[in-house]
User: Fold this.
Amino acid sequence: MQLQLRSSSSASALFSAVQVKPPSSPPVRVKALFTKNPGSGTLKNSNSNTNPNPNPMASNPRWAQKTVTLPPLRRGCHLITPKIVKEIAQDLSEFKCGLAHLFLLHTSASLTINENYDSDVRDDTETFLNKIVPELYFVSLLQGRSASWKHTLEGPDDMPAHIKSSMFGCTLTIPITDGQLNMGTWQGIWLCEHRDAPTPRKVVITLNGI
Amino acid sequence: MQLQLRSSSSASALFSAVQVKPPSSPPVRVKALFTKNPGSGTLKNSNSNTNPNPNPMASNPRWAQKTVTLPPLRRGCHLITPKIVKEIAQDLSEFKCGLAHLFLLHTSASLTINENYDSDVRDDTETFLNKIVPELYFVSLLQGRSASWKHTLEGPDDMPAHIKSSMFGCTLTIPITDGQLNMGTWQGIWLCEHRDAPTPRKVVITLNGI
Amino acid sequence: MQLQLRSSSSASALFSAVQVKPPSSPPVRVKALFTKNPGSGTLKNSNSNTNPNPNPMASNPRWAQKTVTLPPLRRGCHLITPKIVKEIAQDLSEFKCGLAHLFLLHTSASLTINENYDSDVRDDTETFLNKIVPELYFVSLLQGRSASWKHTLEGPDDMPAHIKSSMFGCTLTIPITDGQLNMGTWQGIWLCEHRDAPTPRKVVITLNGI
Assistant:
């Protein structure tokens, strides 16, 4: 299942930009509000055509949380948008506006957002990480060769894996708009596996919104 | 418009620290709660002087989302706090407590929080990024000169731009306290443009709170 | 106080994974919902044994925010999970599902998630940061020795500290499940102090959930 990206113009429509309004009329500030009275708590949208029949109950805040296990992947960067979206699509569709939070439960892999098209970008990123976080030696004109790591018990790839994990991070927050992840045309979610031995990786996904 | 920073002492006041209470009295735990009954659901604040007349409706969870387009900026790091705050100030002022989420819809630029005063810090950061993610060659005493990238179709600055984007990230979450972004005295929001050719950049801003 | 980690299996139970259901029966989609009517707004949990008597009020969205001051720490990476959990434990216990957001109010230190067991991992990470962001000179086979920084007024460790802060970031968001931070077995929260002179560091903690 491919993530369907949406244009940012409709995303902007959730409330109108003040500067594009005629200065003589008061700025129409439309935003998602939850109120005690569902009848009056509907989404006020500046582009009413896109939401002809807003459901008042849609403005009730809701939470969903799920732990997803990703299958073992070889060392390197992997596009996982389709897998993630497939896991949460049904719940995602119920959110008009919100945030999707991903949290990787590991310290030797990472989550990042990057290019979703050319796999060379993922390969080059892996090349970069291996150059910048060497497994054995730092070498410099000033200092010559120096041993890199104290923590070597779990193999030469382990300590670099920990560092790469902090460089890219283990957590992402992505906006939800009109039932979909609101990402750019070329953006995708990557899981970067930094260990040599593939292992299943768990991601806690938390959805919050209205 | 300059972001008005607030002291962290009043930020702490949202609920009282348990350890500063006399041990003989029960700890007063004050926090933001939403309840079904607006009359009893007001913010209970340990520092009542700062909120003499709390509006019960202020405790209703609310969401606001907007896509902001930043004008083209030259390659390098740019302070965008005033621009961001100007775009959301009116909505921000209605949140007593919450989170502001920024999501850059691109893979060759990044968002980060760093020093807001001396522009040399931004220049030095750009210098660092260019040193650490070279456009053409990795050179080392061990390996000599080696070609850097497979992904070169979009120019020599493109692949390094992708890597820098994952290093700093495309997403930020900032606390909201008393209607303002709750950042440190020296903190600012930076947009780092990693491409040579300036291009407009879009940021989805999501506000959530009470 | 040690953070008690929970198994991801019970975390998943907040709503059931669609694929593990028999195809003949409709998928039971259970999630945390807030409704206007507390009687019908209780948590519907696929694992009813873990929540025999759900409190309907627990499904009311709530917010808590607090500024924590960490004592001065020497330059390097430090495990602060116990300190953070101690500060928020009482409030955390009231959240069935949610997110904990940490925001460091400084630009020369950072927050990251990494290994919580072997202190060598923290030492090696500090070694890496110092190699990759030198205080005085960049040295390369191609360019020879070149002065590093323009921003030197606050000492040679200041500009590298700013860069390290953006590399690891100053903000973390961690899922809350059943009253606890839902992190992996080996994950811990690190404060990385990048300045030579220890100084107190403030973290704004925002809890949001049901």
